[in-house]
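Predicting holo structure, 4'-deoxy-4'-aminopyridoxal-5'-phosphate bound.
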Amino acid sequence: MPTPARSIATYIDGRPADRVIPFGSNSMQHGTAVFEGIRCYATPHGPAIFRLDDHLARLLGSARTLGIAHRYDHAALKAIVVGAARESGLADCYLRPVVFTPDPLLDINLAAREFTAAVEVWPAPTATPFAQEGARLTVSSWCRPSRRSLPSHVKATGTYVASAMARTAATEAGFHDALQLDPHSGRVAEATVANVFLVLGGRLHTPWPLDSLLPGITRDTVLRLARDLGVETSEGPVEVGDLYAAQEVFLTGTASELVPVAALDEHSFPGDRPTFRLLWEEYRATVTGRRPGRQGWLTPISADNPPPN
Ligand code: PMP
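Done. Tokens:
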């Protein structure tokens, strides 16, 4: 995801803040923070955040799984994120709430730390440069972290070391990104910061969460849109070889939305992508508030229409 060099603003506990955290922060030293990546879109009814409640539920679930002690409930986090989006003045933006500890104490007992919610606001990521022609992927030799050591539904900062290693190696080798495998089964899990889908004989298929993937909110949205459009869907085991048999492969994530895959290592996929194009159109219409039946996924940020507390 290409992003501008700087976020436009940071808010800690709802108040504007600078971006500096103490060097000794346990979250910085040990990767012990949880976070979300969320998008706000310009819609015909004003700017609105897509699937905010689902992102916040995942954030609270991540904190709970790590055993982080914090003082925020769903409504408090919602007010903080909506407030940050509104303050930014941007209709289209990317919001990054993080629950982290500034405590400069090296003890790794998270229950003994004070955790704080901060939000960074970025101008919305522009379409990835390879979104049109499609991403070129390789299969990484770095697997996803095992679900047995770090549950994959958790979005913790430390987990991203494994993604960063895979992305770095892939980029250095001339690819846009990498697919990572489950460390136990050796099956396909996901890309470094996105889920993967394949189209096989008109059916949409995606790896199941048993193979150490983050069950993305975009993944869930795409599965639901596909079903509503009459496309058959399934989740299950995916071997690398299954991808070679696919007519279409694409990636999904909040920041990059839906990105077609042009090639996996030496293998190219056909360029017509009918299922991808159908789902991409429906996804864009949904997130930008142009599907009346799906307004429930959008939280308006205007002060006249505040979210319920
Ligand atoms: N997998 C990983 C590892 C990710 O970081 C992301 C981005 N959050 C995704 C999948 C896609 O998740 P979502 O659709 O919720 O953004």
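The helical segments are 26-30, 52-66, 74-88, 160-172, 217-228, 240-245, 274-287.
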